[in-house]
Amino acid sequence: MRDPEELERRVAELERRVRDAVGTPGPRFRGIRKRASWGIGDLPWYDIARGSDPDKDEWRGHARGVIAIGDFATGFLAVGGLSRGVFAFGGLAAGLVTFGGLSVGLLGAVGGLAIGALAMGGGAVGGVAVGGAAAGYYACGGAAVGEHATGGLRRDTEAEIFFAEHGLPCGPTRRMRP
């Protein structure tokens, strides 16, 4: 049997090693909050809100500013998990011109699933749609459906001319290597 002092010394050494490996116990990660003191009207020039803020009882940050970066972002230029703005970038992006996993843009949308006047993505729905699966008035893709569609299912000469004239990656200019 070992002596109690040696056991206490070994336990203290093991606790020190665990603390060094895992980190000291303490408050969870606190988010980042930065906001410009000046802006346009009530909107600050920039607002950054990432992570939790226990003082305000927020689990996620909501940034609102001309330039907004956060878990939720609303602004002229919005970057975040869920972003809304004139130019929006994020997992779920909505606005005028958007880039994201699910992208909904009035003028243009680029993303995994893109919905907009000009939509480009894995799945694209819009007036002009380019993607793996595309649906639109002018559509180009592996599975393209629409008034003027070209792709794996059918070839439409007017669609091929439209995409070639506008420099979009579809139509007779796209060739496969032998």
Provide an overview of this structure.
The chain has one domain (4-165). With 178 residues, the protein is of the alpha/beta class. Helices cover 16% and strands 57% of the residues. It has two helices and six strands; from the N terminus they run H-E-E-E-E-E-E-H. A hairpin with a 2-residue loop joins strand 2 and strand 3. The strands form two sheets. Strands 1-4-5-6 form a four-stranded mixed beta sheet, covered by helices on one side. A two-stranded antiparallel ribbon has the order 2-3.
Write the layout of secondary structure elements.
Layout: H1 4-22, E1 32-35, E2 39-40, E3 43-44, E4 46-50, E5 62-145, E6 148-151, H2 157-165
Parallel strand pairs: 4-5, 5-6
Antiparallel strand pairs: 1-4, 2-3
Number of contiguous helices: 2
Tell me which oligomeric state these chains represent: single chain
Unreliable segments of 5+ consecutive residues:
172-178
Order of helices and strands: HEEEEEEH
Q: How many domains, as an integer?
A: 1
Approximate shape: elongated
Structural class: alpha/beta
